[in-house]
Automatic annotation (TrEMBL):
Belongs to the peptidase M20 family. Allantoate binds at R206, N264, R277. It comes from the Bacteria. Binds 2 Zn(2+) ions per subunit. SUPFAM superfamilies: Bacterial exopeptidase dimerisation domain (SSF55031), Zn-dependent exopeptidases (SSF53187). Keywords: Hydrolase, Metal-binding, Zinc. Its cofactor is Zn(2+). CDD domains: M20_bAS. This is Allantoate amidohydrolase.
Length: 402
């Protein structure tokens, strides 16, 4: 199975790790999902939002136990963020069959589409649409860097964009959703554990800072006469690091676009996208307000106009405590429920976070000794991956029997 993970994770389709929604490599990963499902005699389904499902038993019976994750990636992401959860789901099913487990409830495996939001800028599009957290109109307006809208991209991939919308009936038939994911940090490496259980997802969001200045000649314009948005942007990046450090939060300007983007032209417009996350809402608000306040001061000093748009936001997700504790017991908590299995929070968003408002949801993390993610350096050792599969199989067996 792990050999299979590598090609899926390092898809050669578009330069290795570029598995963007509805693009070539993403579609080939989707084909791989369907092949894996059909090879196991599972009933394959594509839902109205392009999420893929593989069923053992009839989901209409309800109270299904579902596991899975996503196969798309960020630009030059890693081989494990997403694919590890999907591959482990198929491997866990194989293990349960090998154990001779009889399933009293439907068991589902899901690949949620467009989790990273790398192409259209919004994370978890597939799960947000199904959970009704993204309207059809908002989704139809999503546009990529080449001006291709989500509907056009879906159509080009042979999917019907008019079909998208809430899928609450499908979600109502799920009794528990468990997403296994590579840890995007080093907590398990520090405690020396192979597998952990998630407690919560930090509140996080994406803001677009538009700095509008005055295009001019880089060589002939006196410094005193410049209204250079790049300067205001650069000072705002430093402010983001300062505000985050002060608050014990994180803030990243990870994406920028410049117009006219010429080496010898003072820009007219610099767009910077901020990703900020914190352990609680109040802290996140403090950090982002601080960054915006500093950015406005810098812009004013340069005679630059600043507009800030909040493009997406995910409130704190506290995973279902009863399900989390049941999973911890299944994974070996001792009699007095002292959790042997580490329980850890995460700053990374997940489809499980989106679903948690609708379905009892939990997450398992697999140790990542590098702690690195959203980079080719992301890693999970094979024996930790196998431990993750065994843990997931134990959890699915326990939940399918309750
Ligand atoms: O951005 C995130 O936290 C997730 O990997 N989509
Ligand atoms: Mn990710
Ligand atoms: Mn992920
Ligand atoms: Mn996820």
């Amino acid at each position: 199975m792990w050999r299979e993970l590598q090609p899926i994770g390092r898809h050669p389709g578009t330069g290795g790790y570029r598995r963007f929604a509805w693009g070539g490599a993403d579609l080939e990963c989707r084909d791989w999902f369907r092949e894996q499902a059909e090879a196991r005699g599972l009933v394959y389904e594509l839902d109205r939002n392009g999420n893929q499902w593989a069923w053992l038993g009839d989901p209409a019976a309800g109270d299904a136990v579902v596991t899975g994750s996503h196969l798309d990636s960020v630009p030059d992401g890693g081989a494990f963020d997403g694919p590890l959860g999907v591959v482990s789901s198929f491997a866990a099913l194989d293990e349960l069959r090998a154990r001779g487990v009889r399933f009293t409830k439907p068991l589902g495996i899901v690949n949620f589409g467009d989790e990273e939001g790398a192409r259209f800028g919004l994370a978890c599009v597939g799960s947000r649409l199904s959970a009704g957290q993204l309207t059809v109109d908002q989704a139809h307006r999503l546009t990529d860097a080449d001006g291709v809208t989500l509907p056009r991209a879906m159509e080009a991939a042979g999917y019907d964009p008019e079909a998208i919308g809430p899928d609450r009936e499908r979600l109502a038939r799920i009794g528990a959703f468990v997403e296994l994911h590579v840890e995007q940090g080093r907590a398990l490496d520090i405690t020396g554990d192979r597998v952990g259980v998630a407690s919560a997802i930090w509140p996080h969001g994406r803001w677009r800072f538009d700095f509008r200045g005055e295009a001019n000649h880089a060589g002939t314009t006196r410094l005193a006469d410049r209204h250079d948005p790049m300067l205001s942007y650069a000072e705002s990046v430093l402010a983001a690091r300062r505000e985050a450090r002060l608050a014990g939060a994180v803030a990243t300007f990870g994406k920028i676009s410049v117009e006219p983007n010429g080496v010898n032209a003072i820009p007219s417009l610099v767009r910077g996208w901020l990703d900020s996350r914190a352990a609680d809402q109040a802290t996140l608000d403090t950090v982002v307000d601080g960054i915006e306040r500093a950015a406005r001061e810098y812009a004013e000093a340069q005679g630059v106009r600043l507009d800030v748009v909040r493009e997406s936001f995910t409130p704190v997700v506290e995973f279902d405590h009863a399900l989390r504790d049941e999973i911890a017991r299944i994974l070996g908590a001792d009699e007095d429920a002292e959790l042997k299995v580490p329980v850890l929070g995460t700053g990374a968003g997940h489809d499980a976070g989106i679903l948690s408002g609708t379905v009892p949801t939990a997450m398992l993390f697999v140790r990542n000794p590098t702690g690195v993610s959203h980079s080719p350096a992301e890693y999970a050792a094979e024996d930790d991956c196998v431990a993750g599969v065994t843990a997931l199989a134990d959890v699915l067996e326990g939940l399918a029997r309750r």
